[in-house]
Task: inverse folding
């Protein structure tokens, strides 16, 4: 029995909350036992944040009127027992609409006026300026009010050609994409540029974000959709309609905005909607089915896909069936098949990413904590040897021993300068990496790209300018990788030296994987190249359009570079924290040894008592080690979510608790 998208997403959410809770418990336990150094703490904090705030975006992309909004209603909102997103002839979505949940904001619909396109800020920046958005509060208990408010996303304005051109919605170079001119000489443009819907729907509360896009025109007019939002979505559903077949503009969307970065990930679904238009009382069910299959085959051929990659459904009948609890109609709509594929694709993607993050972070954390336990164990055994050596010795031997420890301590304190020198070389190299990945570098590259586009403005020149920019960015990353490599070599060398000299057990933390960010750059470049293909290259002749695209690029790159910098920072923090921990433990060790001798000198404690004490401490360390192993392997071994094993309805969170 297949579970609905909603159920699977619920289970994923339960697992995430459970996991975040366990991380918190682990952090408290580490803290209680003095094992939580600043690097480990930072690692845990990041991982927990990632688990809690994990967003999953599903984008619905298609030419208008293919049934995107209706499909969204059917998959996610059937529980409201009515249509939530406006979906009817003539009520089509005019602006990209994101549905999500932010607990900080009351339930509302926010609309960004289309006129903001006259200004240069990318969409991402407008999000940070709430006062520029028109806000309509929503009454979540009143589906009729909700539906009425949502109709705003369909609003249009009639403007002159001049205005349309300034808004970037009219292009002389690509006349076929332009809106129709009315008899009054005006053209119809969307009233809003972007809509954000904030409601506490159970799925949205768990981090689902749904993006409903308007047709080709609007997608083409907002580069950020193609170069940022759509490529970053965890799943994209591309919709065709059975009654229209694959039209020229469907194909344009597919080619310019969608062709998958990796086609087999299951995160890109192609839907053949409105199959109910082929239901025909005069044909047998077999004949109808055969006809649907034929259209499925042709659709797949045109898009260059396998037949099974095209999923036939009827969104509208699926919604009706869910609202009326009509099991037979639901089956006929084939909506459950799509939901299953969507859940699988989305969750598969998320789990892959989260599993990787959990694996590396918990692994590193365990080895860091184990190392600290190792130092303590070594200290205890040293003390043990020392104390056992004092058995049957007279007071002058004991006094001599004390002097020796004090000398050792003084030598050790003097070595601080050397350790300081190591740190400062390390920091200098790090600064070079920070410069290479910093905002200033990125800004320079973007300015150069803008200048190049301004002076060339021609189709060929545009591509070349982009290619050159990406080459330089990649070169910068490689340079960063090279310096990181040098730092790693240096750390390994000096750590080994310090280990030999002071009996430390330092180990250079795992080097950041900057090559991964190079791959991210490749993907960004690909989405830009795709966007620059054919029709849009002509629009680039307009400087505002080119500027807008560069700004969209800059916002995406900033995210990538910030994440790379974050990794470099954590790497550095881990190295520094290790060194600090060893120094601290060593100082404590001197203190403890001196204290033991002192007590024996004053005959306050018998030697045997002290030895028994140390044995007890060693046993306590063994217990800590075992507990650490238990707590961390629970985190890495727990199945990521129950939905991976079909038929299992109990969330993993409950099973492993
Ligand atoms: N027959 C049929 N019509 C549908 C189906 N899904 C949507 N429609 C109709 O197609 C039109 C456009 O739907 P809508 O969801 O607004 O399309 P969008 O512009 O892609 O969001 C509306 O009149 C819907 O009632 C379907 O599965 N079958
Ligand atoms: Mg719509």
Result:
């Amino acid at each position: 029995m297949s579970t609905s998208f909603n159920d699977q997403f619920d289970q994923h959410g339960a697992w995430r909350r459970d996991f975040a809770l366990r991380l918190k418990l682990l952090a408290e336990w580490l803290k209680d036992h003095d094992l939580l150094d600043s690097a480990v703490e930072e690692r845990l904090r990041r991982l927990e944040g990632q688990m809690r705030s994990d967003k999953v975006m599903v984008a619905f992309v298609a030419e208008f009127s293919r049934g995107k909004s209706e499909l969204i209603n059917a998959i996610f909102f059937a529980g409201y027992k009515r249509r939530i997103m406006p979906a009817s002839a003539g009520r089509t979505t005019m602006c990209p609409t994101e549905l999500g949940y932010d607990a900080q904001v009351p339930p509302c619909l926010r609309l960004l006026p289309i006129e903001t396109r006259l200004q240069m800020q990318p969409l991402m920046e407008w999000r940070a300026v709430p006062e520029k958005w028109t806000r309509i509060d929503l009454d979540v208990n009143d589906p009729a009010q909700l539906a009425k408010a949502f109709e705003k996303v369909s609003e249009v304005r009639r403007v002159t050609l001049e205005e349309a051109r300034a808004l970037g919605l009219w292009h002389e170079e690509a006349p076929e994409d332009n809106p129709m001119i009315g008899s009054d000489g005006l053209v119809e443009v969307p009233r809003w540029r972007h809509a954000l819907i904030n409601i506490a729907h159970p799925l949205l509360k768990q981090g689902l974000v749904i993006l409903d896009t308007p047709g080709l025109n609007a997608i083409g007019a907002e580069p950020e959709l193609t170069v940022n939002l759509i490529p970053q979505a965890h799943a994209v559903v591309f919709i065709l309609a059975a009654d229209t077949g694959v039209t020229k503009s469907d194909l344009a969307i597919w080619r310019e905005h969608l062709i998958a970065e990796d086609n087999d990930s299951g995160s890109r679904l192609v839907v053949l909607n409105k199959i109910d238009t082929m239901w025909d009382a005069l044909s047998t069910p077999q004949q109808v089915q055969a006809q649907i299959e034929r259209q499925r085959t042709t659709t797949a051929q045109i898009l260059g896909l396998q037949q099974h990659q095209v999923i036939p459904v009827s969104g509208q009948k699926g919604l009706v069936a869910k609202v009326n609890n009509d099991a037979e109609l639901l089956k006929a709509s084939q909506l459950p098949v799509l939901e299953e594929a969507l859940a699988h694709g989305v969750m598969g993607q998320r789990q892959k990413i989260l599993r990787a993050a959990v694996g590396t972070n918990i692994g590193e954390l365990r080895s860091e904590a184990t190392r600290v336990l190792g130092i303590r164990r070594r200290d205890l055994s040293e003390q043990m040897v020392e104390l056992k050596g004092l058995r049957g010795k007279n007071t002058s031997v004991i006094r001599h021993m004390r002097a020796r420890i004090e000398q050792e301590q003084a030598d050790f304190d003097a070595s601080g300068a050397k350790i300081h020198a190591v740190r400062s070389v390390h920091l200098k190299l790090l600064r070079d990496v920070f410069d290479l990945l910093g905002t200033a570098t990125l800004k320079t590259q973007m300015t150069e790209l803008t200048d190049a586009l301004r002076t060339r403005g021609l189709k060929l020149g545009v591509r070349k300018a982009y290619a050159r920019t990406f080459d330089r960015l990649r070169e910068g990353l490689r340079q960063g990788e090279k310096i990181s490599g040098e730092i790693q070599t240096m750390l390994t060398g000096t750590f080994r030296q310090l280990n030999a000299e002071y009996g430390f057990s330092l180990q250079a933390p795992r080097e950041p994987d900057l090559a991964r960010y190079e791959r991210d750059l490749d993907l960004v470049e690909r989405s830009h190249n795709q966007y620059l293909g054919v029709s849009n290259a002509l629009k680039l002749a307009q400087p505002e359009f080119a500027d807008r695209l560069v700004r969209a690029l800059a916002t995406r790159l900033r995210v990538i570079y910030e994440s790379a910098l974050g990794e470099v920072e954590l790497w550095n923090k881990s190295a520094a924290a290790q060194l600090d921990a060893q120094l601290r433990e060593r100082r404590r060790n001197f203190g403890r040894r001196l204290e033991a001798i002192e007590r024996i000198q004053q005959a306050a404690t018998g030697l045997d008592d002290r030895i028994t004490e140390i044995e007890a401490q060693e046993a306590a360390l063994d217990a800590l080690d075992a507990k650490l192993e238990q707590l961390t392997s629970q985190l890495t071994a727990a199945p990521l979510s129950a939905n991976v094993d079909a038929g299992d309805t109990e969330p993993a969170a409950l099973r492993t608790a």
